[in-house]
Amino acid sequence: MHYKRILLKLSGEALMGTRQYGIDPVRLKEYAEEIKSITDKGVQVAIVIGGGNIFRGLAGASNGMDRVQGDHMGMLATVINGLALQSALEDEGIETRLQSAIKINEVAEPFIRRRAVRHLEKGRVVIFGGGTGNPYFTTDSAAVLRAIEIDADVILKGTRVDGIYTADPEKNKDATKFDFISFEDVLKKGLKVMDTTAFTLSQENELPIIVFDMNKSGNLRKVVAGEKVGTKVNL
Ligand code: UDP
Questions:
Q1: What is the CATH number of the domain that holds 200?
Q2: In a designed cystine with 51, which of 12, 131, 160, 174 is the match (CB 3.0 to 4.6 A)?
Q3: Which residue CA neighbors atom 14 of ligand 1 most closely?
Q4: pTM for the whole thing?
Q5: Complex ipTM, two decimals?
Q6: Alpha-carbon torsion 75, 147, 194, 163, what sign?
Q7: Which atom of ligand 1 approaches the CA of 136 most closely?
Q8: For residue 52, with 0-12 CB atoms within 10 Å meaning exposed, 13-18 middle and 19 or more buried, which class applies?
Q9: Which residues line ligand 1 (CB under 6 A)?
Q10: Tens of pLDDT along 79-128?
Q11: Residue 184: which of 168, 155, 204 has the closest Cα?
Q12: Number of domains making up the chain
């Protein structure tokens, strides 16, 4: 495999499948199978999971809720998703550990970098819940942060579109896809890959990002094998 240690970012919304809210068990199982296809090849896999299928702090704030309170709810939502993903992975026979950025010791290990790396070396999938543990951040920022901390080769952002386009492909038929694009060009062209905080952190640390369609069976394995799938953002 081309990449030995990856950080896979999955949004909470991805777990909804065709639902409007919550977790679709069918989708969860599909993702677990995709992940198994790469752990079987000896790839070390860490995952950061979002919480948007359950709660977003910003949505709470727009309804008058205190933003920090809402963000705490969002972080807890990512732990719920992490537990669901952990279950699905274990059903596939994969050893896993869930580490949380907020202390919730009966439910998940605390985030300890050296311990996370040790788990990866032993072939366990490590799921990072709780985002960065701080309000006003996103799980994209958590994904970049953890990827740097564990020295991942690449961030794989699994989405429902198959890469980065010149314009939103769901709205503009003439939009074309990039196979490769530089960090600088993403910023210059005002393209949306991750929020600015997350994106800049990745750029500063020269950590490539690959955006790809996680819902297409076999794609994750192809990306990890170094095949030309999705869009790669590099220096
Ligand atoms: N969140 C936070 N700090 C973090 C990560 C997440 O406060 O470091 C909260 C925030 O309210 C966010 C919610 O958790 O809206 C869910 O995360 P995100 O929106 O990134 O999930 P995704 O869009 O990937 O499903």
A1: 3.40.1160.10
A2: 12
A3: 74
A4: 0.97
A5: 0.98
A6: negative
A7: 7
A8: buried
A9: 11-13, 50-52, 56-58, 70-71, 74-75, 77-78, 131-132, 134-135, 137-139, 141-142
A10: 999 999 999 999 999 999 999 999 999 999 999 999 999 999 999 999 99
A11: 204
A12: 1
- Supply the range of the domain harboring residue 195: 5-234
Instruction: Note the pLDDT of residue 114.
Output: 98
User: What average pLDDT does range 198-214 have in this prediction?
Assistant: 98
What are the angstrom distances between the C-alpha of 227 and each of 193, 202, 221, 231? 20, 22, 9, 11
Distance 114 CA to ligand 1 centre (A): 24
- The token pair that represents 74 in the structure block: 């969002």
Mutate to test the pocket of ligand 1, among 78, 141, 144, 214 (most ligand atoms within 8 A of CB): 78
Nearest CA to ligand 1 atom 21: 50
Q: Could you give the CA distance from residue 202 to residue 141 in angstroms, rounded to a whole number?
A: 9
Instruction: Quote the pLDDT of residue 86.
Output: 98
Centre of ligand 1 to C-alpha 174, Å, is 32
